[in-house]
Amino acid sequence: MKENSKLEKATFAGGCFWCMVKPFDELPGIHGIVSGYTGGNVDHPSYEQVKTGTTGHYEAVEITFDPEVFPYQQLLDLYWPQIDPTDEGGQFFDRGSQYRTAIFYHTEGQRELAQASKQKLEDSRKFSKPIITEILPAPVFYAAEEDHQDFYKKNPEKYKQERIESGRDEFIKENWSKQGS
């Protein structure tokens, strides 16, 4: 790895943040993933506050990455198949505004790539319903409490059960794993 490489941040909301870490974790060029909250109207919110759905925050992940090793476009290509981009009420069995989907861009280049990737998904007609995932400027990001960081590593059985019971894995298999679609 080049010592002078410039790291960037990417922020994605895809429902429960526990389920949004593992797909990006431990890939070349990914230097860290933090689960947290963004987009709300309370400074330094707690999980207990955010889960009420009244703070305006999204559960999200902030990814630190090296764009020379893992370009932003690859992050987008990995993000979309983790979510139901047509669900405005949350994700899978997690309901409420804190579980909405969004791409939060940190640069104009990220905004352009995110918009293009969303347009490509819309044009594909993969889904009969509209793609409602928003593309928004990245606001302040607050790290979640330590027990929410790397949840899939700390609680592998509970994580696996959560993915199955939520319907996320079934949705991904049904909608994103089809070849040629």
TrEMBL record:
* Catalytic activity entry: L-methionyl-[protein] + [thioredoxin]-disulfide + H2O = L-methionyl-(S)-S-oxide-[protein] + [thioredoxin]-dithiol; [thioredoxin]-disulfide + L-methionine + H2O = L-methionine (S)-S-oxide + [thioredoxin]-dithiol
Record's superkingdom? Answer: Bacteria
Broadest EC class? oxidoreductase
Give this protein's Gene Ontology molecular function annotations: peptide-methionine (S)-S-oxide reductase activity
In this protein, the active site sits at 16
Query: Which residue positions does the secretion signal occupy?
Result: none
For this protein, the Enzyme Commission number is: 1.8.4.11
Question: Ranges for the Peptide methionine sulphoxide reductase MsrA domain?
Answer: 9-160
Instruction: Write out the entry's keywords from A to Z.
Output: Oxidoreductase
Q: What does the similarity note say? A: Belongs to the MsrA Met sulfoxide reductase family.
Give a short account of what the protein does: Has an important function as a repair enzyme for proteins that have been inactivated by oxidation. Catalyzes the reversible oxidation-reduction of methionine sulfoxide in proteins to methionine.
Which PANTHER family does the record cross-reference, listed alphabetically?
A: PEPTIDE METHIONINE SULFOXIDE REDUCTASE, PEPTIDE METHIONINE SULFOXIDE REDUCTASE MSRA 2
Q: What is this protein called?
A: Peptide methionine sulfoxide reductase MsrA
This protein's species is Fictibacillus fluitans
